[in-house]
Amino acid sequence: MGRYVARRLLLTIPVLIGASFLIFAMVYALPGDPIRALAGDRPLPAAVQAALRAEYNLDDPLLVQYGKYVLGLVQGDFGTDFSGRPVLQTISERLPVTATLTGVAIVFEIIIGIAAGVLAGLRRGSFFDNLVLVTTTLLVSIPVLVLGFVSQYVFGVRLGVVPVAGISEGLYSYLLPGLILAAISLAYVARLTRTSLADSLRADYVRTARAKGLDRRTVVVRHTLRNSLIPVVTFIGADIGSLLGGAIITESVFNIPGLGRAVFESVQRQEGAVVVGVITLLVFFFIFFNLVVDVLYAVLDPRIRYE
Amino acid sequence: MTSPVHGSAGSHAAGTRTDDATATSSPRTGAPVLEVEDLRVEFRSRGPVVNAVNGVSYAIAPGETMAILGESGCGKSVSAQAIMGILDVPPAHITGAIRFEGRDMLQMGAEDQRKIRGPGVSMIFQDALSALNPVYSVGDQIGEMFRAHRGTSKKEAKDRAVELMDRVRIPAARQRVDDYPHQFSGGMRQRVMIAMALALDPKVLIADEPTTALDVTVQAQVMDLLKDLQRDTGMGLILITHDLGVVNEVADRVAVMYAGKVVETGTIDDVFTRPAHPYTRGLMSSIPVLDGKGQRLNPIVGAPPSLARIPPGCSFHPRCPMARRGDGGRPDCTSDVPPLREVAAGRRAACHYSEELLHG
């Protein structure tokens, strides 16, 4: 297992290099001139523009630019944005915000998703089961933007139970954005739990558990739930990566100063250093959580062994 | 039920309730520990009603081995699962009586019924790999019997599990107690199942095709083990199988099932050498003979009926070489249901024309 984890961690290095280069190239390929856009209607003096270009290596060919960027990275320098702020500072300020948002979303995903799935799976065909089926179908078919704006209007503006936007009210202000960010994943988790539980309930070993004279609670919790939650846990782990991606939209809708919004704004300003730095970090998290899932999978299911 | 006139060769202790079940008494007489009377199981869900078990009666005495023989889909497993109380009700609908030590399990509350599973009646299944939970160690699953029924501590339950694994002859039990089911061979897994089922010294063990999924050599070992364990514990053994060889080796009595009914019961010798039902005779003559090289096999024509559409009259009549329309006041196989009746001492069969088979 240790060797397996080490090998997987080593493999992340080429993936990170490849990912960062791709993102770098895409920012490079964006149309328009970031320096001119920076200046707006009143053009900067040619000398200033040239100085900025030189500072950010904007006149170099793609490979040279990327090479200089990587050279800086190796020395711990993530570069600066056009206003001279170090990218590392942006990341360290905004990462906790996104981490909180994602964390809240995962908690919703686990609690609501699994609870709804378990109750529906145990009482298939019941009113609650149908309610879960209809609700989850709605959740996955409504675009997050619509869901976000509508809930913002209903709960924030009309009912006033949560802040409309921003993070001025601490953890409380993350509730609605967290729920919206979790919405689609939550629906998938509920459905997956329901199906998986129903499958497990039909399994031979559950029949054995009943034949052993175990009480219903033990049969369901010990011999059904644990087995049926294995695919759910792996889904949630892999889903953390997509939540980080989804945060880009949610943070913009709810005006939350996290990494997602940093990416969104930097793409508009064509600030390569910020975009590449943040996205590469997200890619790393994605790989990392996938590794965690694989390890967790082996812990949960003794049949899985990595050699 | 049926009149007590049927009274049988050896029944004495259970005389208070002489009925179909006790009538076919065992060679090892004694009060039956488990009696099944007119057991019927229907499945009612969408679609036609499936009559999986249609009036099965038998009794099993301590130390006795009864084989329930039949093709796939004849209701033999369903009847066993009904006895264990592990069918989902609904869609299953169970009627009749299942008396364990004189108390009808179908009349008990769910909690009382549950407490019989394990220490009273226990069951092992065909495919031990899928019947064992893949995420718990075998020691955990065996020990669970003690923890759940007797509140034994984790540590002691594990020690007991090791003892049981020794008893079912799993080598290096102490080292293997923390291994998982997938780390065992098929035969060893079935031994784990057996250890688990025998943990609380059940009075009756139901073995549902215990050797079907195993290699032939391993089959013999597992059957030997079951026989030895039965001799040591004096439990009644209900052996569900379609393997005539297994039945011949270990069973005292046999009940042959067809389309959800018992069509013939009797001692192994009687049933195997002189079948009293055309279906049993068909089964026996379909066994390949060792010196019959080059001869064609002798299968029963046709296929067993769907349990959703059981033929009227004798359910075997469409495949029966002896089936006849009633004429001259004789029973009509296509419309008159043959009762399971005593056709010779200690033998019962459900055929209008058993006597012809036996004597003609």
Automatic annotation (TrEMBL), chain A:
Transmembrane domains' residue ranges: 9-30, 95-119, 131-151, 171-190, 232-254, 274-300
Name recorded for this polypeptide: ABC transporter permease
Its membrane topology: Multi-pass membrane protein
A GO CC term attached to the entry: plasma membrane
InterPro entries linked to this entry: BPD_transp_1_N (IPR045621), MetI-like (IPR000515), MetI-like_sf (IPR035906)
Domain ABC transmembrane type-1 stretches: 95-297
Subcellular location: Cell membrane
GO process terms (BP): transmembrane transport
Source species: Pseudokineococcus marinus
PANTHER family: DIPEPTIDE TRANSPORT SYSTEM PERMEASE PROTEIN DPPB-RELATED, DIPEPTIDE-TRANSPORT INTEGRAL MEMBRANE PROTEIN ABC TRANSPORTER DPPB-RELATED
Pfam families found in the cross-reference section: BPD_transp_1, BPD_transp_1_N
Principal subcellular localization: membrane
Keywords, comma-separated and alphabetical: Cell membrane, Membrane, Transmembrane, Transmembrane helix, Transport
Similarity comment: family membership: Belongs to the binding-protein-dependent transport system permease family.
Automatic annotation (TrEMBL), chain B:
Region (Disordered): 1-32
Keyword Membrane listed: yes
GO cellular component annotations of the record: plasma membrane
Skewed-composition ranges (Low complexity): 13-24
SUPFAM superfamilies per UniProt: P-loop containing nucleoside triphosphate hydrolases
PANTHER family found in the cross-reference section: DIPEPTIDE TRANSPORT ATP-BINDING PROTEIN DPPD (PTHR43297:SF2), OLIGOPEPTIDE TRANSPORT ATP-BINDING PROTEIN APPD (PTHR43297)
ABC transporter domain location: 34-284
GO biological process terms held by the UniProt record: peptide transport
Subcellular location: Cell membrane
Record-linked CDD domains: ABC_NikE_OppD_transporters (cd03257)
Predominant localisation class: membrane
Ranges in coiled-coil conformation: none
Membrane topology according to the record: Peripheral membrane protein
The keyword Transferase belongs to this UniProt entry's keyword annotation: no
Protein name: ABC transporter ATP-binding protein
An example molecular function term from Gene Ontology annotations: ATP binding
PROSITE patterns listed in its UniProt record: ABC_TRANSPORTER_1, ABC_TRANSPORTER_2
Domain of life: Bacteria
Keywords of the record: ATP-binding, Cell membrane, Membrane, Nucleotide-binding, Transport
SMART domains: AAA
Assigned protein family: Belongs to the ABC transporter superfamily.
